[in-house]
Amino acid sequence: MGDKKKLFRISVLVLCCIGIHLYSVSPGRVETGYAAHIFPAIGRSLRAVFGWLPFSIGDLLYAAAFIFLLIRIYKMLRFLLRKNKEGAREQVRNAALSTLAVCCIIYIAFNLLWGINYNRRGIAGQLELKIEKYSGADLQNINGILVEKINSSKDALLRANKPYPSDAELFKMTSDAYAVIEKKYPFLQYRPVSLKSSLWGWVGNYTGFLGYYNPFTGEAQVNTTVPKFTQPFTACHETAHQLGYAKEMEANFVGYLAAAASADTLFHYSVYTDLFLYANRSLFFTDSAASRQYRQMLSPEVLKDFEERKKFNLAHTSFIEPFIRALYGKFLEANRQPMGMLSYDEVTGFIIAYYKKFGKI
Is 0.85 surpassed by the pTM of this model? Predict the structure, then answer.
């Protein structure tokens, strides 16, 4: 009887997974249903429950899950190495069913709490942007505009000579930036706030992550141990994930909208430097000489910041980063981002489409 109940429960879980998948195949249905009505309520609720805490509950959950996984691996190895294999078939069967059940539960929770957003129409549909293949001339134009914006914002920062904000100030400035862009695009309303410093920033340094969103707690974590000028755009990017923009290029673009709307020049500098790196890398693939030419147009002070970023990354290289990047790339591919890790770069197409429609960036 116990086995029948277990199989029935697993069958129900599998059917729920299939149901979520079938619902998600229609971007229009997801956009007008889950993304427009269901997820905003979920996101606000999670941020209200966990956002007021001064530390990241999600980070503690990840740590607990990692420890649990290590214990399970240890027990499995001990079982495989023992001499007495009596009842082994039954134990392997139970372990396989338990693993399947856990995977189904994680899949269901992940998608219901946030993951279905991978299948929505997204910000391009909301702004009626025409995302199409861009030309080399488009790339060069955007590179030139970004160079001017980077140099001017860096010059303004040097003249102001203000210290970098504290973590708390950074997060307050991020919510302020979204309060500004909300006036133009009400669907980008960001309340309540749940931005936090990652407890595992040192791990992110060696695995290549500047920030991440926890779909189970609604918290956005920012790695605040990296060079300070990179952090504002990361905070805006992770906030975009909180608002239901799951795809990386969309989170980049929504993060751009917020950072560019900010009253603080540091946010402008942070977002335009990142956008330039994406656009310049895309240009390099089609015209490496032009790509280098635009880099040479950056001011010495900007190049100094780029060098700081490069040195930081080199100081934190590890054998595990390529593996993590490859694994995450496969995850992105499985969630409608066929470019994998290069999906971040696809924000360039959004920026070009936005410029063509509105005449500015």
Answer: yes
